[in-house]
Structure formats: structure tokens, C-alpha cells
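With this grant's support, we have settled on a layout for protein records. An illustrative entry appears below exactly as we store it:
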Amino acid sequence: MPESLKSTTELNNGVMMPRLGLGVWKTDNSTAKNSVKNAIEHGYHLIDTAKQYGNEYGVGQGIKEAIAETGINRKDLFITSKLYNGDQGYATTLHAIKGTLKRLGLSYLDLYIMHWPVDGKYIDTWRAMEKLYHEGLVRAIGISNFDVPRMKNLLAHSTVTPAVNQMEFNPINQEKKVIAFDNWKGIQTEAWSPLGGGEALGNKAINKIAKKHGKSAAQVILRWDWDRGIVTIPKSAHEKRIVQNSQIFDFQLTDDEINAINNVDQEKRALWYDNFKWHSVNAPYTDEVDHWDDSPKDWKE
């Protein structure tokens, strides 16, 4: 089958996941609704959100409107959300999924991800996510922002291996150790912040490759992700950019070009444990949900 937005990868539980999708971090409900609707209308099937983003309601409205206008079936979409850090723990995780499904207007998720490993809680949290998986409320469960030691600890106390590990991954932060571990354990790596912001997009080596192919730096990076087998969810609030991000199937990178981008790596993370205090259960700080003026009053329920 030709490469396209319909192309999928098989997760370790047999579920098929689209390889390129839309992310909606730092997007209010109204913008998220329009972005999701535009993305689905232009052929995207993978949509990624999170309770922490504060826009599950808008994402749900975008899905609803896109289904009504395009006639696409819900089962053909792949919807991901993430467990909020403040909801971690066994009982609270089982309760939190209800709010996420209500805000999205869905009866199940295709992928439910633990947003960060909250130390002292993530083992009990995972037990609850396994229960949700076995009950069929989620088709697959995954993790995000886990380093290798925490992944090893999770696997030592789990009965279900995570299907996906969503990491900050881009040309300047390639997380070689994490990806090697994911590959060893059959866990699909998924990239958040795949374009690496201005630093990666402005890289001379990447722009040289882009000029050669008549493509943007973003399109070259997304093609590089594709060739490396990384599931990718670039964010955009603009319909034109959403379309452009999907136009990566009409050119090929050479091995030398792929290696040139591989060599851009600086192991430079934008976010990691040292940036936060809440990853320790005993810390005096907590993570917060993004609040938007267009959030419904009962968004937490």
C-alpha cells in the first residue's frame, strides 16, 4: 500500500495505530475544535490530546463535527488522551477516565497514556490502566516521558507492556537510550515536539536538505521521523500548515541525508524531571491543567 495518512503501525497488542497525526498542546477549545475538524477533513485519523491541555471538550466537538460532515466512522479514527498527573493513583485513575470520555463525547479511547511518571504513584496508576484496558474502555495503554530506569521498574510490576511511549523527540533531542529500550521491549515510540521548535527548524543541515527536495524544514523532519519508524503528532492551529505537514509522501531522504539529521542530535531536552517538582509524590508543588476562557463550566466532571 502506498504511504499515506492512512498508513499504520501494529502495536504490541495487535491494535493498528496511524503513523502521523495531529497534536493540540497549548491550544484552547475553540482552536482545538477547528484544528481537529480540519485535520480529519484532510485525511488525518490520529488525534492526540490530554486532560492537562484543558481542551478535551474542544477536541471532542471537532471529532463530532468532522464525523457529521465527512461521514467517517468513529472506528476509523484513533483518539489518544492522557491521564492528568494530579489524577494518578489506582482509584483516581479509574475515576478520571470517566471525565475524559465525557469531555470528548466518546465511549472509548484508542490509546490512554500516563502523562508523566509520578514517583510513588505510577505503579498503582498502571494497575488501574491495565484494568481499564481489560474492561475495553481503552484499546491500548501507554506511557509518556518515562526514562529507562522508570520503564524497567514499571515493567517489573506490570502484566501489560505499554504499547506506546510518547517522548520529546526531534533532531536536537533524539533520546537514543529510550528508543533503544522501546525497540527492545516492542514499545512503539511516539514523538511529541517533533519539530524541535525554532532551533531544529533553523538548522543549516536540515534546511540544505529541504532546499534540495523543494520542501520545508518541517516536512523534512517529519519525513525523517517517518523513515525512522517514529509515530509523530505535530501541532498546528492553521489549516494550511496541517495540510503541509501531511505532504511528506512524495519524496525520499537518502541514507546520507538521514545520517546528516541523526548527527544534529544535541541531547537537548526542553522538558525533563529537573524542570518539575511534582514528579515526586512528596513534593510541595503540583502540575496544573491549562485553563481556557472557552472551557465549559463543568469541564472537570
